[in-house]
Prior knowledge:
Belongs to the aspartate/glutamate racemases family. This protein has helices at residues 17-26, 48-66, 76-89, 101-107, 119-123, 125-134, 148-156, 163-170, 198-204, 215-226, 252-255, and strands at residues 6-11, 31-36, 70-73, 94-95, 112-118, 139-145, 186-190, 210-212, 239-243. By secondary structure, it is of the alpha/beta class. The chain has two domains: 6-97 and 216-258, Rossmann fold (3-Layer(aba) Sandwich); 101-212, Rossmann fold (3-Layer(aba) Sandwich). The strands form two sheets. Strands 4-3-1-2-9 form a five-stranded parallel beta sheet, sandwiched between helices. Strands 6-5-7-8 form a four-stranded parallel beta sheet.
Amino acid sequence: xxxxxxxxxxxxxxxxxxxxxxxxxxxxxxxxxxxxxxxxxxxxxxxxxxxxxxxxxxxxxxxxxxxxxxxxxxxxxxxxxxxxxxxxxxxxxxxxxxxxxxxxxxxxxxxxxxxxxxxxxxxxxxxxxxxxxxxxxxxxxxxxxxxxxxxxxxxxxxxxxxxxxxxxxxxxxxxxxxxxxxxxxxxxxxxxxxxxxxxxxxxxxxxxxxxxxxxxxxxxxxxxxxxxxxxxxxxxxxxxxxxxxxxxxxxxxxxxxxxxxxxxx
Length: 265
């Protein structure tokens, strides 16, 4: 696609910023709308029916308002539930976010992989099907975190979050076998909020592991659909942030780095 495409990035909250950052690096010339459904956050506390009933019409409203050339659903929980509904309802191309189980299992040396996601994501049949199809003989443990997404949003906002709180959420991911060659060596970050805490995850891990962030793969998929584009964005109108609560977000200065030089309005 030539010109400057409009790209809509949607998440339940601020976790999708980790995806946005990678897409901006790949398409610095695009115009961006980041939409956070903060009025309904966190999605993990809602039923599947409620999420589908919420997200499908909401995306339609955002498409009408912003006319995107492509929509990225930067949320594992929403993607595993609504992508098929969205593609049936709207003609805009969609890119979803699903647990990166295939590359994690391909990369694991000890054949022990954990998938760290929200309780909603890890219990989905979609996630279990990915394991059946792509585990490649690995022992894959699903770990549902009740609080890590909220802790990530709090930390981004400058609220102190104790190391112990984060360590407790990730502890079940680390499985020990008979010696270091038979313990977890790869953890899939199956919620886009979690890379917001990546530095602390690395520091608090009981031993080094590979943390698999899906954002680079999502950015590559966007480029495959829209083309490589241009590196120039000096005269671009920047980016727009939309919060479904209707409130101006108090974290504007903290969010700006995720827009790669674009000035979010």
